[in-house]
Design goal:
heterodimer, A: alpha+beta, 8 strands, B: 240 residues, alpha+beta, Alpha-Beta Plaits, five-stranded antiparallel β-sheet, 6 helices
Chain lengths: 216, 240
């Protein structure tokens, strides 16, 4: 009786494993089938984006190896790893938006009707173009920043009401950011078609100061 | 003797069961995704193969990066045990890593799964870009006070962008395959309340109600979100 129960259990397990193995295989296959449905232009863009991201990863791997060697030799020589720690602190404080930052970039000025979804899309597009730090008026955009509608045409950023005109400043490679925003069919072009009475101006800035995220 | 015969019987049943399970799953998937193989444009195959290869390369690079970050962290943690300024710096690094999304987070939360609706026979009704819905869901999660959010295994951080190339979704520079699971750790009741708020996700809910998109919300008592594994941009922005 016990052996029969065991056989049934083992059979059920084998059946489940069979389904699981093929499901995993099919999941990968479905992923590549999605790619098969894209046009050559779309695939070329994906290739460019992936190449770009992989290049960033290689650069960071290279930098981290140097940091690792520096920390190891500093500790071996009795100097401690404070310098490495401080460099890491500076980098993380920029990445988490917990420190004020300075650098070149672009400013997008929005004068007229605008809404929170469009603002969120603009920030998403700036991040996609490689923005390293972003602020909306005097509110720094952090890892958990949210946007909402305010009263009388205002917008809410992290619970704080901001009035137009909105100036969205982004630190990063100014040329890359500028082209990403203003290219034909880009986000600013789309906004101009949707918000016909709103004026959008994009300008390169040699140096900007952005505040830290609020509450720090 | 009885035991060995039982074992033989068991093994004899297991093999066909495994094969049958494989066969059923294979057949089901074939029915679920028809029509995708009839695209025969000359450049699609080599280009999509290249995309797949670069994505695999990225996965390997991320694993390497994660390992190097761990090694550096180990060295600094060992050095900080000696106390003083290094220990203070390490405490601040740990704090920043949490707020930056570079640490694993566990806790209660919700998972919202999005996918395109498939008609009878499994053919997708429309090839739509779900990226705006995903960014709306992320925004709603932060509104509700989420501590951490991820799309599939991609943790959302300050540099995260979500966009479509055709109907392929890219998050943190990495291709993410459907169905898309937006996991948010935070007060589950608060997260659910924001999702139920008629002012939130109006567009997505309208399309869900028209059966144009499949949206499922589940409450989870314990979620684990892995840390962000991508690069940290920081070439132009300098701390003041």
């Amino acid at each position: 009786m016990r052996s029969r129960v065991g056989i049934v259990a083992m059979t059920a397990m084998a059946l489940f494993l069979g389904v699981l193995v093929v499901s995993q295989f099919r999941s990968r296959e479905a992923y590549s089938r999605t790619l098969q449905q894209e046009t050559p232009e779309q695939l070329t863009r994906l290739i460019a984006d992936l190449n770009d991201r992989n290049r960033q990863l290689r650069t960071e791997i290279f930098d981290l190896r140097l940091a690792l060697e520096a920390a190891q030799s500093a500790i071996a020589s009795g100097r401690g790893s404070l310098e490495t720690s401080e460099k890491q602190l500076a980098r993380l404080s920029v990445f988490s938006a917990r420190s004020r930052v300075t650098g070149p970039g672009i400013a997008v000025r929005v004068e007229g009707q605008f809404d929170e979804r469009a603002l969120s899309d603009l920030v998403n597009e700036l991040r996609n173009a490689g923005a390293e730090a972003i602020a909306v008026n005097d509110a720094r955009v952090g890892p958990r920043t949210w946007f909402g509608p305010g009263s009388s045409g205002t917008l809410v950023v992290d619970g704080k009401e901001t009035r137009g005109p909105w100036i969205v400043r982004a630190i990063g490679d100014a040329d890359v950011l500028y082209v990403a925003m203003t290219r034909t069919g880009g986000i600013i072009g789309q906004f101009e078609l949707i918000y016909t009475r709103t004026r959008f101006t994009v300008g390169r800035e040699p140096s900007m100061d952005l505040p830290a995220v609020s509450g720090t | 003797m009885t035991d060995s015969r039982a074992l033989q019987k068991g093994l004899a049943l297991m093999l066909p069961a495994f094969l049958f399970g494989s066969f059923v799953a294979a057949q089901w998937s074939t029915i679920a995704l028809p029509g995708a193989l009839d695209v025969s444009i000359r450049y699609i195959d080599p280009l999509s193969t290249t995309v797949g290869r670069l994505q695999e390369e990225q996965t390997a690079l991320r694993a390497q990066l994660t390992d190097l970050r761990r090694q550096l962290d180990d060295i600094q943690r060992t050095a900080s045990a000696q106390g003083g300024a290094v220990r203070d710096a390490q405490a601040r690094i740990d704090d920043l890593r949490v707020s930056a999304g570079l640490s694993e987070v566990r806790g209660e939360g919700i998972v919202v799964t999005l996918d395109t609706v498939k008609a009878v026979g499994g053919k997708e009704t429309d090839r739509v870009c779900l990226a705006p819905d995903l960014t709306d869901l992320i925004n709603a999660a932060w509104v509700a006070g989420a501590r951490a959010v991820a799309i599939n295994s991609e943790r959302i951080v300050a540099s995260s962008s979500v966009y479509c190339v055709g109907s392929t979704i890219v998050v943190n520079g990495s291709i993410v395959a459907a169905p898309f699971a937006v996991s948010a750790i935070g007060p589950a009741s608060g997260l659910l309340a924001v999702l139920d708020d008629p002012a939130q996700l109006r567009d997505l809910k309208r399309r869900r109600d028209r059966l144009a998109v499949d949206m499922r919300v589940t409450r989870a008592a314990q979620l684990t979100l892995a840390p962000y594994t991508g690069p940290l941009p920081g070439r132009q922005a300098r701390p003041q």
